[in-house]
Amino acid sequence: MQGATASEDLSPRMEFQAQTPEASLDDTTALKKTPLHALHLSLGARMVPFAGYEMPVQYPAGVMREHIQTRTSAGVFDVSHMGQVVIKAKSGKYEDAALALESLVPVDILGLAEGRQRYGFFTDDNGGILDDLMITHLDDHLFVVVNAACKDADLAHLQKHIGDTCDIILLDRALIALQGPRAVEVLAELWADVAAMKFMDVRHCRLHDVSCLVSRSGYSGEDGFEISIPTDKAEDVAKRLLEHPDVQPIGLGARDSLRLEAGLCLYGNDIDTTTTPVEAALEWGMQKARKTGGARAGGFSGADRILAELEKGAARRRVGLKPEGKAPVRGHSKLFADPEGKSEIGEVTSGGFGPSVEHPVAMGYVKLAQAAVGTQVYAEVRGKYLPVTVSALPFITPSYKR
What we know:
This protein folds into three domains: 17-74 and 183-261, Probable tRNA modification gtpase trme, domain 1 (Gyrase A, domain 2); 83-170, Aminomethyltransferase beta-barrel domains (Alpha-Beta Plaits), CATH 3.30.70.1400; 283-391, Aminomethyltransferase beta-barrel domains (Elongation Factor Tu (Ef-tu), domain 3), CATH 2.40.30.110. Helix content is 18%, strand content 31%. The chain has eight helices and 19 strands. It has helices at residues 37-42, 63-72, 94-102, 151-162, 183-188, 234-242, 252-261, 303-312; strands at residues 46-50, 53-58, 74-78, 83-89, 117-123, 129-138, 141-146, 166-170, 173-179, 202-207, 210-215, 224-230, 247-249, 316-323, 334-336, 344-354, 359-367, 376-381, 384-391. A six-stranded mixed beta sheet has the order 10-11-12-9-3-13, with helices on both faces. The longest helix is centred in the middle third of the chain and has 12 residues, at 151-162. It is globular, with a radius of gyration of 21 Å.
């Protein structure tokens, strides 16, 4: 990439190591392995602990090149560590499953059309975010994808609150993401009908003679797909995709820098139980039916606080941040209203170098008074207070097919 180097200061270093309490970087004995583990090793991946799994952080090409590969062509990501869950009402009716899940998420599930997917989040009694997730209406049931680090807690949460009326089933399947502007052409060689899918469509299909579930979605800011595959067939499908000259394997390092440029939250960094959907600027994930005055307003955990913040605003706000110069501002850096560091106003939650935009990018929370785009604030870095400008999110223009 023009204008960037592979130096440590400019590299899009991962911000998610804190999500791996199960093992240290040099202790992989307790880590789980995805169905593609052997493939990662054969491709020369550097493996690290992440959310209880041994996962590829990068391949020999390196994080920078993997990032640009995804933005300009296509890349394959292993996301099999995430949880794939079926929620089916014991009555057999989709409406009953939808209403049950609506008690746990501030999202319109009842109005979700069959074969469509929607972003959502579990909230707690105080309005905090327990996890963010993808929710799909499939036939008479719901198909939900949850974060790996929250998988066990999410299953317990579902079982506790709606287990009496719904069957909660954790599927044993692999999950890969094919992302980038060439993704549709690549996948169309295995299934021509994929070209007709729109953003957030979900379809059953056969890829390389394997029964798969494909969604036109992802977490890179690019057009692309997420593919749920039977575990024993995952390596066959992944290899078939990687045989294409426009496709390369992509690790967690580039996944992190891609989602950061796209202004997408990482659970445990940018959102958690201390942040509400309104503070996190995720109001777009709540449909009119669940808001004040809607057909099914409220009725979810933390509704009183969340609906009040929708009406009156929250005291702080997640914003984009553009540091001056080439040095990134990392997560946990404190933010101040003044260059002397006297008036603390927030904190950076994710930060690194944006290879596509060729400058540092970050996200964080600031007090509402400093949340307007163009506001200059200051980040504390090694005892100095560096100027940072509040910026609109995302930093890149997403290429989703609407």
